[in-house]
Amino acid sequence: MRPTSEAELADMIRAARGPLAVGGGFTRGPRAEGEPLTVAGIAGIDLYEPGSLTLVAKAGTPVAEVERVLAEGGQRLAFEPMDLRALLGTAGEPTLGGVIATNASGPRRVQAGAARDFLLGMRFVDGTGMVVSNGGRVMKNVTGLDLARLLAGSHGTLGVVTEVALKVLPAPEATLTLAFGGHDPAKAVACMSAALGSPFEVTGAAQDAASGVTRLRLEGFAQAVAVRAERLAKLLKAWGTAEVEEGPGPWAAIRDVTDFATRPGDVWRLSVRPSEMPQALALAGGAQRLDWGGGRAWVLVPEGTDLRGRLGSFGPRAVLVRAAPATRAALGTLPPEAPAVTMLSRRLRERFDPRGLFNPGLSEARAA
C-alpha cells in the first residue's frame, strides 16, 4: 500500500481488515508483520521559511532532500539524524517521517537535543482513520506540543505521521575536533564529562574503545571555534595533549556506527548514566563505541550473545539493534517493560489504534 495523499491514507486505514506494517523507507530496523504501508508517496516540502527557522514537510520526504534544501539556505537539522542503512544492511531511502517516528538523533543530541525537541507540530492518521492535526507551524505556537512528542519515538504504533513541522538552525561556519589518545572508558567518560560541563559548547563527545581515542567537537563561527578549542584543550590537559582535526571529521561515521557495518556479530545499543557506563562496558565485553558523552554505547558481540544476561542490573537498558531473526525472536529487540509502563502503553495503543492495526509486535517505547 502506497497512498499519495493524506485522504487516501485515511481511506486505506479505515478499510484495513488486518495488521499494517507502517514505514517510510523501511531503513531503520526489522519490519513488523502485516501488509506493508509506506508513506513514501506522501512527500514534498510544503513550507520553508529560513527567517523564522521553520520547515514543514510531508512524512515521505527523503531526508536527503530536506538536508539539501536546508543547506542551500545555510541551515540544518540540528539533531543530526543517523542513517542506519549500512549498519543494518537495509536499502531504501530514509524519510523525514521515519526520523520522527524513531526519534533518530545523532551525536549533537548532547548539546542541541533530540528530534522530538525540534517538533513544532504534526499531522497524523490514527487507527480509526481520523486525521489529527497537532501543534503549529511557527516557533511561537506550542499548542498540543506534547501529543506530537508522544508520537515521536513511537515507531508508528500510535498513528501514521503524514506531515511534520520542525524548527531548524543555522549551519556552522567552522568545525573543529579535539582528539585525545590513550583513554580507557573510565578516562574517556571523565574527559567528556569535563568538556560537556565546560562553557565551550561541545556539540559531540564520543570514544572508540578499541583505539582509545576520545573526540570532542566544536562548531560555530571560525574565529570563536578556534578560541574555544584552544581554551578547552588547556582545560583538559590532565587527559593528555589534544590533536586538532579541522573540518567535518569522522562524525558522520560515529553517528552511523559504520565501522560495525561490515563486521560480523550482533549490535546492541546501551543507554545508562555516563558515570555507570565504564562498569557496564566491563560486563559487556566485545567491541565498544561511546557516544553522547558516555551516555550511549554501541556494543558488537558474537552472534546469539545474550548481552542483557551479561549486564545484570544494566540489562534493562540494552536494545538489540542488529541480529539474525532467530536471535531477535529469542531475546527480543527491547527488554521487558515494567508493569506500570506496560499498562500505560496498552492504554495508549487502545486510544490511538483501537483495532491494533499499526506495527504489531513493535514497542511504542520512546527511543533512548
From TrEMBL:
<dbReference type="InterPro" id="IPR016166">
    <property type="entry name" value="FAD-bd_PCMH"/>
</dbReference>
<keyword id="KW-0285">Flavoprotein</keyword>
<dbReference type="Pfam" id="PF01565">
    <property type="entry name" value="FAD_binding_4"/>
</dbReference>
<dbReference type="GO" id="GO:0071949">
    <property type="term" value="F:FAD binding"/>
</dbReference>
<dbReference type="InterPro" id="IPR016169">
    <property type="entry name" value="FAD-bd_PCMH_sub2"/>
</dbReference>
<dbReference type="InterPro" id="IPR036318">
    <property type="entry name" value="FAD-bd_PCMH-like_sf"/>
</dbReference>
<dbReference type="InterPro" id="IPR016164">
    <property type="entry name" value="FAD-linked_Oxase-like_C"/>
</dbReference>
<feature type="domain" description="FAD-binding PCMH-type">
    <location>
        <begin position="1"/>
        <end position="171"/>
    </location>
</feature>
<dbReference type="InterPro" id="IPR006094">
    <property type="entry name" value="Oxid_FAD_bind_N"/>
</dbReference>
<dbReference type="GO" id="GO:0003824">
    <property type="term" value="F:catalytic activity"/>
</dbReference>
<keyword id="KW-0274">FAD</keyword>
<protein>
    <submittedName>
        <fullName>FAD-binding protein</fullName>
    </submittedName>
</protein>
